[in-house]
Design brief:
The chain has about 100 residues and is an all-alpha fold. Helices cover about 45% and strands about 0% of the residues. The protein is built from 4 helices and no strands. The chain starts with a helix and ends in a 29-residue tail after the last helix.
Length: about 100
């Protein structure tokens, strides 16, 4: 029980360190791209050998201050269309009598 509590303390310390570095946008990018699980494995390895440590869920404990400029930064429309036009590739097949459907 003491080992799991100590490992959990290491995990909370690592995630708090990540959360206090910057804003929410950089935190999300850091969680998606970095190997935070590997860092937690390395930190807690001397308590108990851990393997395959992954971040499955992150819980926000303290609500950040509401900043309208940051919200508008997330939802800006630069006018640049990043998608490509999708063409319809399905071919229309005419229904033939006796093909199984009601005509």
């Amino acid at each position: 029980m003491a080992q799991s509590r100590a490992i959990r303390l290491k995990m909370v310390a690592r995630m708090s360190e990540l959360g206090s570095k910057g804003d929410l946008k950089t935190l999300v990018k850091e969680l998606i791209t970095s190997d935070t699980g590997k860092q937690i494995e390395k930190d807690a390895n001397f308590i108990f050998p851990i393997k395959d440590c992954y971040i499955r869920k992150v819980k926000v404990l303290k609500k950040p201050k509401f900043d309208i400029t940051a919200l508008m930064e997330w939802h800006t429309d630069d006018g640049v269309d990043v998608g490509a036009v999708v063409t319809d590739t399905t071919e229309e097949t005419p229904l033939v009598a006796g093909s199984g459907g009601r005509l």
